[in-house]
Amino acid sequence: MDSFSLTESKNYRNAQFCFVHGRRRRQGQCKQVHTYLTTIEDTRNQSFSSMDFSLCLSSPIISTLVHFLLLVSLVCPVCSTEIFNYPLANETFRPKEEVHKLNIIINHLQQINKPAIKTIQSPDGDIIDCVVSHLQPAFDHPQLKGHKPLDPPERPKDHSQIEEFGENFQLWSLSGESCPEGTIPIRRATEQDMLRASSVSRFGRKVRRGVRRDTNSNGHEHAVGYVSGQQYYGAKASINVWAPKVANQYEFSLSQMWVISGSFGDDLNTIEAGWQVSPELYGDNYPRFFTYWTSDAYQATGCYNLLCSGFVQTNNRIAIGAAISPTSSYAAGQFDISLLIWKDPKHGNWWLEFGSGILVGYWPSFLFTHLRDHASMVQFGGEIVNSRQTGSHTSTQMGSGHFAREGFGKASYFRNMQVVDWDNNLVPLSNLKVLADHSNCYDIQGGINNVWGNYFYYGGPGRNVRCP
């Protein structure tokens, strides 16, 4: 069994950085432009007035619409007023539905993109806003209004801090830029992000589905290790990071931990964290650090990252949703991230830690029903979406894109998996089970040793001769 050394991982950071940094930026990237629609007429009573918003003038919808409205406002003030109030009977420029959708998008972006005291341009095209901590989206929640982030909680006992790992693991921070104390970095959501979503109302949310790992999973396929049958108060694992290929915009590939409670019906509660490649959500194929939560089986509650009021971020150097660098390479350097989720014994909130002692933030306990007490299941592993657009199985990769039998350096892995017990102790897994619901496409093999503790290899290429 090959052992993994974090010293070895650090030796590959510079080489990987050069590769990632040299990638071509996304097409259509443009700079921020601040447009103040109040210059049209301060006295108008319309939904766009007094609105300061950031938009990308390369957008065919917004660019043309804004220029047209500005022109009409100068030539025909009465006509301009009518356009803003949408009363045109014979509208030929844009359907009323397009204008209405644009209005909804702008309003939603204003809710989730908070005022920044500093803005950082990432090499991959992301814009990172440094937002005052108590103004982040979480504090839009009625139960958090007027509050500020909580102080750090008591960490689980036997919490090893042998692994030394810095916060500089994301593309946006490799230039040395950071957010000031008292602020948090937030990846700015754009109009293009929202237009890629299936609907504005579902932006930043997972598609509702059953969580049971079986063949009736609505296109979602898994290779996971899991424990159940006891009361769990957290989980920890080191997750190997790759950049798997995703076949199309409507699919994703992720590797994460799930902390679960409730039945597998409408009352399912989950807390999730890991990395994902999601062209629909982010507009590219970079692996990104992410979080998720729901208290009603992905129906109306919860979201990715900070795209709704929920998760409270406390760290000013990690941007949830930002691209990870470096990543692992086949038969070469391996890179993993260590994540810990646990329930604060004093206040009951669920905290997230990255690496050794780097607190990212917490999910307030009031967000949940069953998870206000404890979890009844913990899962680790990979998930992909198989849309079958071509009529055959997707070629979207899970993990490294290679099967578990290839082992270290070739197959992706989870290692040092543990759970937190009722007394806030980190303990090894005693009854880990592994399951791949489409083993000819993606598989999993578990094991245990003195270096990695509980571990497994998992993943696969998707479509192949045994997975048509």
Description of the structure:
With 468 residues, the chain is of the alpha+beta class. Helices cover 14% and strands 28% of the residues. The strands form four sheets. Strands 7, 11, 12, 13, 14, 16, 17, 19 and 20 form a nine-stranded antiparallel beta sheet that branches. The longest helix has 17 residues, at 96-112. The radius of gyration is 23 Å and the shape is globular. The two termini are 33 Å apart.
Describe what is shown at a glance.
The chain is an alpha+beta fold and 468 residues long. It is built from seven helices and 20 strands.
- Our count of helices gives 7
Residue share in helix? 10-25%
The chain-level structural class is: alpha+beta
User: Span from first to last CA?
Assistant: 33 Å
Our estimate of the beta-strand percent is 25-35%
Write down the oligomeric state: single chain
Mean pLDDT: 82
Main sheet?
A: 9 strands, antiparallel
Shape, principal axes of CA atoms:
globular
Question: What string, H for helix and E for strand, traces the elements in order?
Answer: HHEEHHHEEEHEEEEHEEEEEEEEEEE
Provide the fold topology.
Elements (H helix, E strand, L loop, with lengths): L5 H6 L1 H9 L11 E4 L15 E4 L4 H16 L1 H9 L10 H17 L5 E4 L5 E6 L50 E5 L3 H6 L23 E13 L1 E7 L12 E9 L7 E9 L1 H4 L5 E7 L17 E2 L22 E8 L6 E5 L3 E6 L11 E11 L26 E9 L5 E3 L4 E4 L6 E7 L3 E7 L9
Antiparallel strand pairs: 1-2, 3-4, 4-5, 6-15, 6-18, 7-12, 7-16, 8-9, 8-15, 9-10, 11-14, 12-13, 13-14, 16-17, 16-20, 19-20
Helix pairs in contact: 3-4
